[in-house]
Amino acid sequence: MSEITIKDIAKLCGVGVSTVSRALNNHPDINPETKEMILQVIKENGFVPNNSARNLKRVEANSVAVLVKGITNPFFTDMIEVIEAEIEKRGYSMVLHHVESREDEVDVALELVKEKRLRGIIFLGGEFAHSEEKLRLLSVPFVFSTAGTQPEKLNEKIYSSISVDDKTESSKVVNFLFDIGHKDIAIITAKSEDRSVGKLRLDGYREAYMQHGRKVEENLICALHEGEQYEQFSMENGYVVTKELLARGTKFTAIFAISDVLAIGACRALREAGIRVPQDVSVIGYDGIALGDYYNPRLTTLKQPTKDMALATANLLFDVMTGKKAHQHLVFPGELIIRESTKAVNG
User: Fold this and answer.
1) For the chain, the helix, strand and coil percentages under 3-state DSSP, each to the nearest 5
2) What is the pLDDT of residues 128-141, one digit of tens each?
3) Quick check: 168 and 300 in contact, CB under 8 A?
């Protein structure tokens, strides 16, 4: 059997070669859980890291970094798989980097560019607005993917983006709930001052209320917890925020959660409170992750075309890197998937 290499360890762990190197060298810039997992895989496979630094240097000369904000969200799983396959198909290696919720992804990218010889950068998740001055500091081509469309347009010639129209698609979700008879609709979303897709989806929620001539009840807007205790887009966050909503005593017949994992957490909190989904309260998510189709009840959701978006993200980055195309901003349509977690109401 051939000797196992650092690249083999990276594949087994589902991370980039540079991440394995950081684990081996006890680098502080690595998630502790990721480091523990990598070291365990190394131990199980008897890997001896001879010349790992030299191997890493060779690989990094042809690397594309993928910075993921919200890496625990299963929404990104399929996207990362497609992007990695496209990167490797072109003879490059992928450096996968987890951006903490409290970190600015562009600041993280600037540090990575200093440390490594990157050829390009893909941002998955994160904020939809950054200063042009900061973006111009990045010396390699980059694409913002699934970070939302930017309302206040900067110089679009300095970066590319791939997204759905989060505001429009969220308005579609809430209008669907109005159309089946719901009038008091709660939303689990990011804080209003946030600059992520949560803000755009909250804007779509407000727009739908306005279109129906109704006033938004502010007690129905449930802001996600942030910080070290909670991953922003997680089942736990959806669960905790829904319990807080129930404690307010505000009347509602439906919950729109701005991601499927939040919706699943909300369903658990409702069930523990003796509230049936969808008989008593309808719940609708956003993203269209596979888990939602296997949850009970099967989750109604706004599905994003993740694989198509991931393929477009990789192709666009390489087209810009090779000079085949100028920067572009592509917007994909979402699809409302109606399943078992929503129900029409009368009156």
Assistant:
1) 45, 15, 40
2) 888 888 888 999 99
3) no
C-alpha to C-alpha distance for 232 and 95, rounded to whole angstroms: 23
- Please write the tens of the pLDDT for every residue from 173-196: 999 999 999 999 999 998 766 778
Within this chain, do residues 274 and 214 fall inside the same structural domain, yes or no? yes
Is residue 144 located within the same domain as residue 218? no
Tokens of residue 104, six digits: 């600015």
Whose structure tokens read 């993280």?
108
The answer, yes or no, to whether residue 315 has pLDDT greater than 90, is yes
Secondary structure (3-state) at 232: coil
Query: 273 in a domain, yes or no?
Result: yes
Q: Which two tokens stand for residue 52?
A: 């790992």
Q: How far apart are the first and last CA of the chain?
A: 70
Domain match, 159 and 273 both? no
User: How many structural domains comprise the chain?
Assistant: 2
Tokens of 38: 């990598």
Instruction: Return the bridge partners of 69, or none.
Output: 99
Query: Which pLDDT band holds residue 226 (cuts at 50, 70, 90)?
Result: confident
Q: Beta partners for 286?
A: 302
The DSSP letter of residue 326 is: -
pLDDT score recorded for residue 52: 43
Does 344 fall in a domain?
no
| Cβ within 8 Å of residue 93, ≥6 positions away | 7, 16, 17, 59, 60, 62, 63, 64, 87
pLDDT band at 3 (very low <50, low <70, confident <90, very high): low
The number of helix segments (H) and strand segments (E) in the chain equals 13, 12
Strand ranges across the sheet with 282-287: 221-223, 185-189, 254-257, 282-287, 300-303, 335-337
Q: What's the token pair of residue 176?
A: 């669907």
> Half-sphere exposure of 184 toward its Cβ, with a 13 Å CA cutoff?
14
Residues 21 and 154 occupy one common structural domain: yes
